């Protein structure tokens, strides 16, 4: 009998004994199998046995601690901060890192205010430039003007982390463009694999840690291990090592010996979780998008404990039952939902690089932490060595919302299962098949719109696959929300309700559910700013305004997510909306007038949004144009989409015009010009409007002029001296702002 077969046989015997022993004490056992971080699937396992095994996969101590950190920070900092690039080329002169000041205390203070528990810094990004005083390269801070080459960003950050109680993690890019491009670079230099001692001694730079290792490696893996040794021994406890799979350029068939890296990490940083390998995984996007169902028990076709390469897991269904059946191993591997607070990973500027608003960050927090994952938010320092004020304000406001909402547990004095209401992480409640409903009674009615549930994943893994929450309202149970899995934490969000009794129903599960904690909360929703839009068919829609953040959009409407139970009211007669105004329920047909709308949330009326709509454009046609760029034809100036635009070619003034057929003869009294906001050129400063009865003979009727469009690219309204009856109009551009040579129109509206 082989060792592998013997191990499988013993596992089955132990599992069977556990089942028998459990059945003697309890006809519905909580543990049917032995739990483990990784469980192998046998060829003869049925669908039911695979599901049962999945329910017995549990996190390692480091993975559980990573989940408990919940909200953590990423810091991208380096030469790209000064070159304004996202990816460097590896050949930047270290002098570009012209850092005069560094305030890591300010970083950690802002993180603390946000409620973050850990920070991961790009100790070395893909360009190969290092932010610490490494013994093994001159391509880094030691060759920069920063503190005359004596500066050490890692050292200062580690001191600040200790001061503010923030855990420290390091991002050490496996890719290294400097080592690829440099003539003596070690990456892919085809060196032999030989036995090497780590760390390699460097004269005059001894280590306080005298531990050494021997590995069979080539030059680049030795270099990588030497630098990893420095980071793990000289900067205090390291709680996460972050690897990604980015390869901007390859050379020489270079391979990474991750299993050797792992041995070093395990020995020198035993509390560190490893991202990008078997520790934690990428959520599959950089936008802050989350899956509705995020299981952390992941199927693998190879044993993840011995794998060297880990592919990104990006599908929508990561670990549903059908996916589990495709695997040969089941492994616990939490997801990190990573994104940036700015448009880009590195700081570029404060003028054009937009910053997420507080609604967006708080919404991602609730969706990620409350969706069985870890929220990793990047905050890139600026060229002053600080977080910019706007970023700091968003972090502070987010922290206030988290504390105000989740710092108070409304079930603190409730009656219910004590195991779920206490503060002891070692208590839990196993549910019987015939007792899958739990009730919680409060001393008096309270306002609630958040409910958090945690399974006892430490001992019993992830089990619940479907559940619902009810509230006692007007003498009967009212279903508030239904959801899928729970795992480490599920935050349920629902319209505000006042109640003194809640009921949790477990509707489906992989094995006997075992819960660890439940809490109830109230988020003080604010009436959101609204946005109005009219379709090409003339239907007006009103909704909470989406964040003006275009980098890697996640598709979520944060304001809408945070305002469950909101009511929108509107008017079309010019009056301001109030509680008695028409309630918006679905898009409505409207033309040539002003719509005013406001949101009502918990009895509070929000700010009024108003928008004037011109004639319907469903019958408009382009008669002709002076010129149009390929992707920006004239139809785009009346498609009711301000993200698209018509743009003329760079040419003489006579070619910057567009003539339109309005479909029928009509009386017009004014027009509105909406400039594009996605480009800074093409703003129309001066122009002439012509009309025609036949589209052939034209009469000049109005000249117009707009100012300050480059600095303020907002819609401009122009009222005619007289009204004009016409079917055809021509819009000719005479002067373009900023002396540019191409005109652009995002949307053109005419009013009766």
From TrEMBL:
<dbReference type="InterPro" id="IPR008979">
    <property type="entry name" value="Galactose-bd-like_sf"/>
</dbReference>
<dbReference type="InterPro" id="IPR000421">
    <property type="entry name" value="FA58C"/>
</dbReference>
<dbReference type="Pfam" id="PF00754">
    <property type="entry name" value="F5_F8_type_C"/>
</dbReference>
<dbReference type="Pfam" id="PF13290">
    <property type="entry name" value="CHB_HEX_C_1"/>
</dbReference>
<keyword id="KW-0378">Hydrolase</keyword>
<dbReference type="InterPro" id="IPR000933">
    <property type="entry name" value="Glyco_hydro_29"/>
</dbReference>
<dbReference type="InterPro" id="IPR017853">
    <property type="entry name" value="GH"/>
</dbReference>
<feature type="domain" description="F5/8 type C">
    <location>
        <begin position="608"/>
        <end position="752"/>
    </location>
</feature>
<dbReference type="Pfam" id="PF01120">
    <property type="entry name" value="Alpha_L_fucos"/>
</dbReference>
<keyword id="KW-0732">Signal</keyword>
<comment type="similarity">
    <text>Belongs to the glycosyl hydrolase 29 family.</text>
</comment>
<protein>
    <recommendedName>
        <fullName>alpha-L-fucosidase</fullName>
        <ecNumber>3.2.1.51</ecNumber>
    </recommendedName>
</protein>
<keyword id="KW-0326">Glycosidase</keyword>
<dbReference type="InterPro" id="IPR059177">
    <property type="entry name" value="GH29D-like_dom"/>
</dbReference>
<dbReference type="InterPro" id="IPR057739">
    <property type="entry name" value="Glyco_hydro_29_N"/>
</dbReference>
């Amino acid at each position: 009998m082989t060792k592998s077969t013997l191990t499988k046989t013993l596992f089955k015997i132990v599992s069977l004994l556990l089942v028998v022993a459990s059945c003697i004490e309890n006809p519905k056992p909580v543990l049917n199998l032995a739990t483990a971080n990784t469980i192998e699937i046998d060829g003869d396992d049925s669908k039911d046995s695979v599901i049962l095994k999945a329910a017995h996969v549990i996190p390692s101590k480091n993975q559980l601690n990573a989940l408990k950190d919940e909200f953590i920070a990423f810091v991208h900092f380096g030469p790209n901060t000064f070159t304004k690039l996202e990816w460097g080329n590896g050949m930047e002169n270290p002098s570009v890192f012209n850092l005069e000041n560094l305030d890591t205390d300010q970083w950690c203070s802002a993180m603390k205010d946000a409620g973050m528990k850990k920070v991961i810094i790009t100790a070395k990004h893909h360009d190969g430039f290092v932010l610490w005083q490494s013994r093994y390269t001159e391509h880094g801070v030691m060759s920069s003007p920063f503190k005359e080459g004596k500066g050490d960003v890692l050292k200062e950050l580690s001191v600040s982390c200790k001061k503010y109680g923030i855990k420290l993690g390091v991002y050490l890019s496996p890719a290294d463009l400097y080592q690829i491009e440099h003539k003596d670079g070690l990456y892919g230099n085809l060196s032999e694999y030989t036995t090497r001692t780590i760390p390699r001694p460097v004269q005059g730079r001894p280590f306080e840690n005298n531990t050494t290792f021997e590995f069979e490696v080539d030059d680049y893996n030795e270099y990588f291990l030497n630098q990893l040794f420095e980071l793990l021994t000289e900067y205090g406890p390291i709680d996460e090592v972050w690897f990604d799979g980015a390869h901007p350029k390859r050379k020489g068939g270079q391979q990474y010996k991750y299993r050797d890296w792992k041995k070093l990490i395990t020995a020198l940083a035993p509390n560190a979780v490893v991202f990008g390998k078997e520790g934690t995984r990428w959520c599959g996007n950089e936008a802050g998008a989350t899956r509705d169902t995020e299981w952390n028990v992941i199927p693998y076709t190879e044993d993840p404990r011995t794998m060297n390469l880990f592919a990104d897991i990006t599908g929508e269904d990561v670990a549903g039952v059908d996916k589990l059946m495709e695997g040969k191993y089941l492994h616990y591997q939490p997801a990190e939902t990573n994104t940036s607070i700015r448009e880009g990973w590195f700081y570029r500027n404060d003028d054009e690089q937009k910053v997420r608003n507080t609604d967006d960050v708080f919404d991602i927090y609730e969706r990620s932490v409350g969706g069985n994952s870890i929220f990793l938010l990047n905050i890139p320092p600026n060229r002053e060595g600080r977080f910019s004020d706007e970023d700091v304000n968003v972090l502070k406001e987010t922290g206030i919302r988290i504390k105000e909402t989740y710092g108070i547990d409304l079930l603190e004095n409730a009656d219910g299962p004590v195991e779920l209401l206490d503060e002891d992480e070692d208590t839990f409640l196993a549910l019987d098949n015939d007792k899958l409903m739990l009730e919680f009674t409060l001393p008096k009615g309270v306002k609630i719109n958040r409910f958090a549930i945690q399974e006892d994943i430490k001992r019993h893994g992830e089990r619940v696959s479907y559940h619902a929450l009810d509230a006692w309202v007007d003498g009967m149970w009212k279903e508030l929300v239904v959801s899928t899995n729970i795992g480490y934490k599920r935050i349920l969000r629902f319209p505000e309700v006042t109640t003194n009794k809640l009921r949790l129903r477990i509707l489906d599960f992989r094995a006997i559910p075992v819960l660890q904690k439940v809490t109830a909360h109230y988020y003080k929703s604010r009436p959101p700013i609204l946005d109005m839009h009219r379709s090409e068919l003339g239907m007006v829609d009103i909704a909470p305004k989406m964040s003006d953040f275009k980098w890697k959009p996640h598709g979520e409407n944060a304001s809408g997510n945070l305002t469950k139970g909101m009511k929108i009211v509107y008017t079309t007669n010019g009056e301001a909306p109030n509680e008695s105004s028409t309630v918006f329920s679905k898009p409505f047909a409207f033309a040539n007038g002003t719509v005013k709308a406001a949101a009502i949330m918990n009895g509070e009326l929000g700010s009024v949004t108003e928008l004037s709509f011109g004639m319907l454009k469903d019958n408009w046609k382009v008669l002709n144009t002076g010129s149009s760029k390929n992707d920006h034809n004239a139809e785009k100036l009346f498609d009711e989409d301000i993200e698209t635009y018509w743009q003329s070619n760079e040419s003489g003034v006579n070619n910057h015009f567009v003539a339109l057929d309005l479909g029928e003869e009509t009386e017009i009294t004014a027009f509105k010009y909406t400039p594009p906001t996605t480009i800074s050129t093409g703003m129309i400063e001066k122009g002439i409007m012509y009309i025609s009865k036949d589209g052939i003979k034209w009469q000049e009727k109005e000249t117009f002029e707009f100012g300050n469009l480059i600095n303020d690219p907002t819609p401009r309204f122009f009222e005619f001296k007289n009204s004009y009856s016409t079917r055809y109009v021509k819009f000719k551009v005479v002067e373009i702002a900023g002396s540019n040579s191409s005109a652009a129109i995002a949307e053109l509206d005419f009013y009766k």
